[in-house]
User: Fold these one by one.
Assistant:
Number 1:
Amino acid sequence: MTNNEAIIEASGLRKSYGALEVLKGVDLNLKRGEVVALIGPSGSGKSTLIRCLNMMEQPSGGTIRFRGREIGRKFRDTGDKIGIGTLRRNVGMVFQHFNLFPHKTVLENVTEGPIVVCKTPKEQAEAEARELLAQVGLQDKHAAYPNHLSGGQKQRVAIARALAMKPDVLLLDEVTSALDPELVGEVLTVIRRLADEGMTMAIVTHEMAFAADVSDRVLFLDCGTIAAEGSANEIIRNPSNERLAAFVSRFNH
Ligand code: ADP
Ligand code: MG
C-alpha cells in the first residue's frame, strides 16, 4: 500500500530531560500508506519519540521533516520549513487515556477541531463527524457524553476525532493499554480497517500479535535507540537479537 512519498523523516533525533538522555539519536521514516509498529520496554522512550514527532515535546537534537519540510517550533511555513500549527493540523494523535473533552458530547468532541482550527462550517463538520462515527461503529452515540461511554467507545471517539482533521498520518500511543481486555478487540478492529484503507500510521503497542499482523515494519526501541528494525517476521515472530527475543517472549502471541 505504500508509495515513496516520505510523510515523516526523523533523523538523529535526541531528547534529554535534564541529565536523563531518553532518545539517543533515533532515525525513523514513514512513507505514505505505511504502518510502522513501535515496540519496546516501558521507559525505553516510545512516548517521547511519538510526542517529538508532532512537537508536543521539543527535541534536543536532530531533525524532523514532514512531507519533506523541516519542522521547527519557531518556523513559519515556507517552501522548505513548516511551523507546528500546520504540522499539528496534519498529524493526528491518539493517546492511552483518550483525552476527550468531558463537558462536550461525542459529536462536539469530533467537530471541535474542524470548526475551531480549520474553520469548517458547523453543518459540514457535523455531517463529516456523523460519517466518521458510523465508521467506528458509534452512529447512535452522537449526543452521549464521554463519561457515559465504555473505554472502548471513548477510544473509538478519540480515533474519530483525530480523523476529523483529515490528517496525513496518525500517531497512536498505546491506545488499548487502558482498556479492559474484552474491549481491546473493537479498537484494534478500527485500526486494522484504517490500515487496510491506506492510512499512514505509527503505532506504539504491546499487542504483539496485532503489531505483527497490521504493520509493514516493526521498530524495537530499547534505551533510547532503535535496537532492531525489520519485518514482523524478523522482529516479532523470529527475533534473532537476544534482548529482543526476551522482550517479545513476555507477550503471548
Ligand atoms: P515509554 O513510552 O517507552 O514507556 P517514555 O517516553 O514515556 O517511555 O519515557 C522514557 C523515559 O523518559 C522514562 O525514564 C521517563 O521517566 C522519562 N520521561 C518521560 N517524560 C518525561 C518528562 N516530561 N520529564 C522527565 N522525564 C521524563
Ligand atoms: Mg509510553
Number 2:
Amino acid sequence: MARQYLVAGNWKMYGHRASIEALVKGINAGLSSLPKVQVLVCPPAPYLAEVAHSAGVNLAVGAQNIAAQEQEGALTGEVLGAMLKEVGCSHVIVGHSERRALFGDSDAIVAQKVRAALIAGLVPILCVGETLAEREGGQTEEVIARQLDAVFALSPTASLHKLVIAYEPVWAIGTGKTATPEQAQAVHQFIRGRIAAVDAKLAGSTRLLYGGSVKPDNAALIFGQPDVDGGLIGGASLKAADFLAICTAAQLQAV
Ligand code: PGA
C-alpha cells in the first residue's frame, strides 16, 4: 500500500507570537507546490489555537505533548487530548526523547499517552530511538522493541491504524549528526518488522518518519530509503525556507 509522505515540524519551546505568525505565513505560501506531501507543524501549546486558525487547509497542526489521562480532572498543568482536538489539532507528538529524558515519560506513560491520543481522535506520532551509549552497546533494536512493545501492550493493533512512528536516534537530535541513510533504513526496517509480528497489515500502512538533524541538504537521501515515509524536523523547521525545502525533497520522492 502506498504511503503518503508526512513532514512534521517540531518547534519545541521556541518562538513568540510574531515569529510564529511569520513562520506559518511563510510555510502556507509554499504549500501549493507540495500537493503530494502531508505537512504538519507542532507549535508550543499556547499558540496551537492561533496557528490552527491561520493555517491553510493543507497545513495540519499538532501538539508536542498530551496528558496521559483520558478524562478531564484535577490535573494542574496538564492538557487533555479532547482540548487539543477542539482547538484544531489533528496530531500529537508522544514520547519525544526530550520528554523521556527530562520529564519522566517512561515507556508505560508514553503508552498511556498514545492511548489517550487515540481516544481523543488525534493521530499520535510515537517517537522511539536509542542513545549513543545504547547504540555503541549494540542495544539499538532491544531499546526500540521495548518502546514499541509498551504501546502494543496497551492499545490493540486495530486501534493503531493511524499511528505514525518517528525514529529519532537521541544522538542525532539537535547535534548536527544525522544517521546515515543506511542506518535510518536499517532501523526503520526493524520497526516495520516488529509491527508485522503483531499485525502484518498495520506494518504495511504505518508511516515511519526519520528525525534527527534532517536538513535541506540531507533530506533527499534519507527520504529515498524504502522504509522512510517522511521526517520529524526540529531546528530546520523554524525557518520556512528550510522546512519547505525539506518538504520539497519528500515531494520529489513521492512522484
Ligand atoms: P532536530 O530535532 O531536527 O533539530 O535534530 C528533531 C526533533 O527533536 O524532533
